[in-house]
């Protein structure tokens, strides 16, 4: 590794945990820890932010100005996704079942009940360009109904504990893409998140 000075604190995405003092990892999966970031925050950063980054940008293709719906915003990956989507310049709609997200978490915070109608109302009946589904279960059908023509649904987990049943007819009729994301150290370096200094 030649881009990071010896002795600099670093983080990496590794397989099967890293509970050790020293560890050898592929240099493409190592990022310097920003000076203002404490070790506790740095320890959780690779999984939550890498997963959100790869899901939204690499797999989901999120662009500035697009509308994105994000579920699971009170969890680590969901919170990271909300921050990344805002930094990209997307219009962010968070789905909050618990009622604990603050209005600052997204441009709009909605309950899961009646979600598709609410998203369509906010988008002039167009629907969302992208959905990041971290929850799965029955909510996924509502998320598909909230998508615009040629919308993209990225699935990254099943926090509800239920793997959704999806109607391929709905996918076909809406020309929708369903995309899976599995973030792991095996992913090519080109998809790894670059440090953004935030």
Class from secondary-structure proportions: alpha/beta
Q: Tell me the helix content.
A: 25-40%
Query: How far from one another are the termini?
Result: 23 Å
Mean pLDDT level: 88
**Element order: H for helix, E for strand:** EEHEHEEHEHEHE
Domain module count: 2
CATH homologous superfamily placement of the largest domain: Medium-chain alcohol dehydrogenases, catalytic domain
Largest pleated sheet: 6 strands, parallel
Q: What CATH first level of the largest domain would be assigned?
A: Alpha Beta
Structural summary, described in words:
By secondary structure, this protein is an alpha/beta fold. Helices cover 28% and strands 19% of the residues. It contains five helices and eight strands; from the N terminus they run ββαβαββαβαβαβ. The protein has helices at 39-59, 76-88, 115-122, 139-145, 168-173, and strands at residues 10-12, 30-32, 67-70, 91-95, 108-110, 128-133, 147-155, 177-180. The radius of gyration is 18 Å and the shape is elongated. Residues 194-198 have low confidence and may be disordered.
């Amino acid at each position: 590794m030649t881009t990071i000075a010896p002795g600099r604190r670093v983080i990496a995405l590794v397989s099967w945990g890293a509970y050790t003092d020293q560890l050898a990892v592929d240099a493409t999966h190592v990022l310097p820890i920003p000076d203002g970031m404490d070790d506790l925050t740095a320890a959780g950063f690779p999984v939550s932010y890498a997963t959100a980054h790869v899901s939204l940008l690499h797999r989901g293709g999120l662009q500035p100005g697009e509308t994105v719906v994000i579920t699971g915003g009170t969890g680590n990956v969901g919170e990271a996704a909300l921050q990344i989507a805002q930094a990209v310049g997307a219009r962010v709609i968070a789905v909050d079942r618990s009622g604990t997200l603050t209005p600052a978490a997204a441009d709009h915070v909605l309950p899961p009940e009646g979600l598709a109608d609410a998203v369509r109302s906010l988008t002039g009946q167009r629907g969302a360009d992208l959905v990041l589904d971290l929850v799965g279960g029955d909510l996924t059908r509502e998320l598909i109904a909230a998508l615009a023509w040629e919308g993209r649904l990225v699935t990254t987990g099943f926090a509800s504990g239920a793997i959704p049943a999806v109607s391929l007819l709905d996918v076909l009729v809406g020309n929708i893409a369903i995309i899976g994301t599995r973030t792991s150290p095996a992913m090519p370096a080109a998809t790894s998140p670059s440090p953004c200094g935030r």
